[in-house]
Design a protein that fits this description.
about 575 residues, Immunoglobulin-like, 4 domains, 5-stranded antiparallel sheet
Length: about 575
Amino acid sequence: MDRHARSFSLFIAMTLALCVANGARGQMVDDTFTYQGQLKLEGQNVNGDAQFAFYLWDAETGGNVVGTPLAMEAAIVDGVFTVDLDFDAPDFNGDIRWLEIAVRYPSGVGSYTFLTPRQALRATPYAVTALQAQSVAGLDGHSLDAADGTPTDALFVDNAGEVGIGTLNPLAPLDIRNDWATLRLQAETAGASTFIDMRRSDGSVRGIVGVDGPGFSGPKDQLSIATWTSHPIGFFTGAAQRMVIDNTGNVGIGVTTPSRKLQVVGTARVGVLEVGGNFPTQGMLIDQDHIDTIQGDPLFLQAQSFGDVIVSRNLGVGTTSPGVRLDVESSESSATTAVIRNTSSSGNGGAWLDCISDSGTLEIGINNSTHLDPGTSVLNATADLKFITGGAERMRIKNDGRVGIGTSVPEVGAKLDVEGVIRCEAVILDGGADLSEGFCVDETARPGMVVAIDPSRPGALRTANTPYDVRVAGVISGAGGVKPGLRMGQADTIADGDHPVALTGRVFCWCDADANGPIEVGDMLTTSATAGHAMRASDRDRAFGATIGKAMTPLERGRGLVLVLVNLH
C-alpha cells in the first residue's frame, strides 16, 4: 500500500454512540459504532465510491493490531461517508485505541493510501468518541470556514465567547464587519409594517414604534413613534418630562399641556431677525442688537407670495443676549413661549421640524388630516435614533425598527433588547400558555411528548418510555398550536437547549388511552411504556413523584393530544 502517493485529507464530521438494538432495554451494548468522516483529495471534496481499510491499534505509533482489520466499500457524497465498524474486539474497556485508515479512490483503481496520523478512540460501555485528527486543515474548534473554503475563519469565537463575522477580533458579543451592507432584515410580505406594540395591562393599544407600510401611521417606509388613542407622547430625562406631543399635535417643551403647535417654556436659542416697518409710527425698531415695535404693537414677520424670511445672525426673543441662532426666554409663568402652526388641511401639509446634517435628516412633526393617517412621527431616514442623558447613550432605535435599552446593538431578531434589570407592575403574555425552559433532548423528541431526566447526560432530557417514571421532567411545549408563554434558560451553559419543556401551565400532551384505560377530565397523568406518551395514573402510590399534571380534555381510546395542566409532583 502507498502511504504518500496521493494527497488525501480526512476530518471527523461528528461523533456517534455505540449501536444498540431497538427495545433492548437492559441488554449490554456491543462494540459496533458508526464512523462518519469527510474525505478530500487535493483540497476538494471527493464524490463517488471508494474502498476503505480500517485497522485498530493499541498505540499511536507501532504497537499491535487489536481485533480483526476491516475492508469495505462506501459511497462518498460531497466528501462525506458513513460506515459501521465492528473490529470484534471484546476488550473495549476504556483503554485508548487508535484507528488507522487506508483509502483507494476511485474504487478498484491503484493502490491504497494510508491517512496519518492514527486517530485516538476512547471506548466506554456506552459510547465511542472519535477525536479530531490534529492534521485536519480548517477545523480548530473555534472558527468556521466558508463552504467553498474562501474565506477562512468566516465565523470566529474568541476566549470570551464573543462571536466575530468577518473579524478575528470581535469587540462585542456579536461583531459583524464587511465592506458593504453588514446586516439585512426584511419582512416576509411586501409592504408590511414592522412595529413595536406597547399596551396597558388590560391589553388596549397605547403606542407603537415602527417602520410604516401602506396605510399605517404615516408615509410608507418611514420610522414612526405614534399613539394609537387620544394620549400624548412624552420625552423624559432625569426622571422628568422634558417634551410632550399631545393628541392634537401640540408640542410642549418644558410644559406638560401645550396649547400651541410648539410651546416652549425656558430658553431657546435661534438666529437674528431683521424686519423694517412701512411707516415711522408703525413697524419695529432694530437698534444694534435689539428688535422692538415703536408703539408696542404686535410684531409681524411676513413674506408675500410664499417668499422666504432669512435670518443670518442670532435672534433673541425675550432676551438681550441671544447665544445661538434662536434664543427664546420668558419670565411669565403663563406665557406661551413658542408656537409652530400649519392651518392647512389640504394636500400633504403638516407641521414639521427638520434637523438636517451631512449624515441625514431628522424630522419631528405631525401630518395634517388628509395626508394618510393623522398622527405624530419621528423620522430618521439614514441612521439610528439615539436617546442620550448625562452624556451617555441610554436608548437606541435602529433604522430597521429594533430598540435597544442599555445597549446600542440590540439583538438581531428582537424588537426590544434590554441590557439590565426590568421592573414592572405586571406582565401580560398573550402569545403562549406555559412556563418552559430550554433543554437538550434526544433526536426522537417532538412537541407534546413527555420527557424525563437523562442520567447519562447531565442537564439533558430523554423521551420518557417507562410507566410511573419518577425522573419525569415535563412536556415539550408547542403541540396543538399552543406556544410557550415564557421561556427561560442561560445561553452557552448547561442550562440551555433547543426544546422548550413546559414545567407548569397548560400544554397539549401526547397520551395513550389504551395503556391504562380511558382518560377523563381531572385524571392525574403519568408516564407510560409508549415513548413520549402519558397515561392515566391509577396507582396513587406509584404516582407520587411521577405525576405530570391533570387532564383538561378527555381521551376515550387510542393515542391523541390531551390538554394538560402541568403540575409536576
